[in-house]
Design goal:
The chain has about 280 residues and is of the alpha/beta class. About 55% of the residues are buried. The C terminus is likely disordered.
Length: about 280
């Protein structure tokens, strides 16, 4: 069994502010250990149920996808780190994987959840695919589904897990903290959070064949609403973009893999204003 584990940072127990997620934050180093610990819990759960190959993607873009501590990651896992990457949080995903696990994830922008945002908290207001609004959970599940890979587990706060369960029938969830606000939470002790993730990983992988891959039929309609006109103007230079309104662009792609890469290009063209304090990216 070949397993892909994508690990973000904002949904990890004990993490609730930019002092944790930003590499310049004074609590960033302890937060890296918390993130790595939850990654290891998922790896260990996968090994218990017979995984023979495990890829772990460092999926927190706030430090250029370099937040997981490689020396502390379980030696049975292969680490995907650094960037840029065409497929971002799922770089390397293909049809040969048996399951995708999303660990440490957060709710999309506009949802009451810890660190709620979609890819770039300063730039993106909303993303719709074939008329369905999605955040990072839906985007990544859709990319895995493009290759026929089911997304079987999501871990994070209560709102992130609820978002995943609303999109993907049968997906397993591990709620490691409860949202009290965008930058506040009530969470499990790290050891209890890891125990829960380890258990839910085993359950999810045992029942992976009962979960249908989440996919979008082509041609895929991609619509992105930015928070202001500036980043929309930058993204409008991409061939095939059409204006919907002053801050919204749309395009049609032949399949979801193309739409995913197109969206990542749109986000990459965002240039923050000088002196901006980036609370969270990915």
């Amino acid at each position: 069994m070949k397993v892909f584990i994508s690990v973000d940072m904002e949904g990890v127990a004990g993490i609730s502010d930019s002092v944790h997620t930003n590499p310049h934050g004074y609590d960033y180093q302890p937060a890296r250990r918390l993130m790595t610990g939850e990654a290891n819990a998922a790896v260990q759960g996968a090994l218990i149920v017979g995984a023979t190959e495990i890829w772990v993607s460092d999926s927190h873009g706030g430090n250029g996808y370099r937040s997981i501590l490689g020396t502390e990651l379980d030696e049975e896992a292969q680490l995907i780190t650094g960037g840029p990457r065409p497929f971002g949080q799922l770089e390397g995903i293909d049809r040969f994987f048996d399951a995708l696990l999303l660990v440490g994830y957060h709710a999309r922008h506009g949802v009451f959840g810890v660190f709620n945002h979609t890819t770039n908290g300063l730039a993106i207001e909303a993303v719709h695919v074939n008329g369905i609004e999605v955040g990072e959970i839906g985007l990544n599940a859709g990319l895995a589904g493009h290759y026929g890979v089911p997304t079987v587990l999501v871990t994070g706060d209560d709102m992130a897990v609820a978002e995943g369960q609303a999109l993907i029938p049968g997906i397993h969830g591990a709620v490691v903290k409860t949202a009290l606000g965008r930058y506040a939470s009530r969470g499990l002790h790290p050891s209890r959070a890891r125990e829960l993730i380890r258990l839910r990983t085993q359950e999810a992988l045992k029942n992976r064949t009962q979960i249908t891959p989440y996919s979008f039929a082509g041609p895929v309609q991609l619509q992105v609403r930015f928070k202001d006109t500036g980043p929309a103007e930058n993204a409008s230079t991409i061939p095939g973009m059409e204006w919907v309104d002053d801050s919204t662009l749309a395009t049609t792609c032949p399949d979801f893999a193309t739409a995913y890469r197109t969206y990542r290009t749109m986000v990459s063209l965002y240039i923050p204003a000088w002196g901006s304090w980036i609370r969270s990216t990915n």
